[in-house]
Design brief:
10 strands; alpha/beta; about 40% helix; 6-stranded parallel β-sheet; single chain; Rossmann fold
Amino acid sequence: MTPGGRILVAGGDGLVGAGLARHLSAAGVEVVATTRRRDGPLFLDVAAAADAPPALPRADAAVLCAGVARLADCERDPDGSRRVNVDGIVGIAAALVQQGAYVLHLSSDKVFDGQAAQRRREAPTCPLTRYGAQKVAAERGVLGLDGEVGVLRLSKVLAPSLPLLNDWAAALRAGTPIAPFTDMYLAPVPLDLVCRLIACLLRARAVGLYQCSGASDRSYVALAETFVRGLSADPALIAPCRSGLDPAALSPNTTLDMSVEAARFGIGQPAFDDVVSDIAAVLR
């Protein structure tokens, strides 16, 4: 069973937004997706939505995937990124709620400090980065609206189209070393699982907080090792290095408790090796 009515995907250029639009369209759902390209069919200036309600097509439900997602960009431009990630997103959500739409905003595991595994949704937020703090503020702003609104927190989303994995695959085929980070961790979820869960939330018009993450955290070196095995490439091409990021902002734990999602929608946490091996099989 698929969501009914027209679905607006704000941020159709991104990994999750584009994947979600394809997933819903393939299921026969009417989808309209915004773009950040001014020459695109449905341009949306998220920053401008901080000042005035944006002109958006009517929709029965919307998923807000747009935003400044790079941690470094948020640190470099805290005011500009907050204007998008908080003020713009809440402005868009408010305009859609006023139309009577159900709104689902995508958030991040970075609302937590990464010092504990399997964080429960009701745990106090404790971000270490500007990006994480912006996501906390956006969650509060969206959930504080008077309407049907939900938030879905995600850990790292992986897909065969992810540039990092495509670059690694190309390098490995050419016999060139890859340099995964030893001090960064991820609990990956595949894009198709994320899209399935979002479809469930849309269908149920589920309000409140929801979470989605992989079952366990491992380093980017472990990601590279599993990926290399999946491609039958030379493990000697793995050249681990440090990220150079502030150690205080690095999260050793990004897993999120999914007991509610498993019980309500039958969607649980995928195993690390399964996620990475499936993607490697596509890129082999």
